[in-house]
């Protein structure tokens, strides 16, 4: 999931941005949650501090009244704490744009409030769309997590929770992902997953196993036993390769 935040000290503007973003997320069916809309930078940073593994989208006003920390400082702290963060500045101060480059914040966009509500709304929607696309690419590229897509939503599972993946008998084009908390079924292809995730081993035409979750290999039954007690078949031609892979792990 992509977690979104708004930092804006004008309560009316804050509610407008909140409504626009939430409506667009709902209409497009995106796996994004607007976690917070606030005028307090410290509250926002505290939430980020508690969830450093999250992927974030931040809409930040640069100048926050009655505060000793501004949007630029918030952006710098976010950059230092999160591996993935898309940052959009929404401000009246166009002359401060150069500071974002000087501080190497690398924002996705710089929206000027004086451009009018229609233009702001368009820019906000465009930035949500681009951020979500980048988020999806980032998730798919990460081997620390196993990711899959159902409809327009991208889900991710920590790789250390994944046990094995199997084809669904009698249902071509469907696979089952078995993990420590249960199982999920969705349209997929083992060949594509084998090519994408080098840490998963194709022990059989119908199974991909996470070698880190293999408890032992039963040579008599020619099956691998996973940590939860479940088993997967091993084809004859993959037996020796599997033995070597288990020795190396």
TrEMBL record:
Task performed by this protein: Required for high-level post-exponential phase expression of a series of secreted proteins.
Signal peptide: none
UniProt keyword terms in alphabetical order: Activator, Cytoplasm, Phosphoprotein, Two-component regulatory system
Transmembrane parts of this sequence: none
CDD domains: REC_LytTR_AgrA-like
Residue stretches making up the Response regulatory domain: 3-128
Name of the protein described by the UniProt record: Response regulator transcription factor
One Pfam family in the UniProt entry: LytTR
Residues annotated as domain HTH LytTR-type: 146-248
Organism: Pediococcus stilesii
Keyword Zinc in annotation: no
Sample GO molecular function, one term: DNA binding
Modified residues (4-aspartylphosphate): 61
Top-rank taxon: Bacteria
């Amino acid at each position: 999931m992509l977690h979104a935040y708004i930092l804006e000290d004008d309560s009316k503007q804050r509610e407008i941005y909140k409504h626009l973003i939430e409506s667009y997320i709902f209409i497009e069916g995106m796996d994004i949650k607007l976690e917070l809309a606030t005028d307090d930078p410290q509250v926002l940073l505290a939430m980020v501090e508690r969830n450093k593994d999250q992927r974030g989208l931040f809409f930040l006003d640069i100048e926050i009244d009655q505060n000793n920390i501004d949007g630029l400082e918030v952006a710098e702290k976010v950059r230092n704490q999160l591996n993935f963060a898309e940052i959009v500045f929404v401000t009246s101060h166009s002359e401060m744009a150069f500071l974002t480059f000087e501080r190497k914040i690398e924002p996705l966009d710089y929206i000027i409030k004086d451009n009018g509500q229609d233009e702001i709304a368009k820019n906000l929607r465009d930035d949500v769309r681009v951020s979500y696309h980048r988020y999806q690419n980032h998730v798919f590229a990460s081997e620390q997590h196993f990711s899959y897509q159902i409809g327009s939503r991208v889900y991710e599972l920590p790789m250390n929770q994944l046990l094995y993946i199997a084809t669904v008998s009698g249902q071509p084009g469907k696979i089952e992902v078995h993990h420590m908390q249960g199982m999920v079924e969705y349209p997929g292809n083992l060949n594509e997953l084998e090519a994408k995730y080098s840490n998963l081993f194709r022990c059989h035409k119908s199974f991909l196993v996470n070698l880190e979750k293999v408890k032992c290999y039963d040579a008599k039954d020619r099956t691998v036993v996973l940590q939860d007690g479940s088993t997967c078949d091993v084809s004859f031609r993959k037996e020796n390769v599997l033995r070597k892979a288990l020795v190396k792990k």
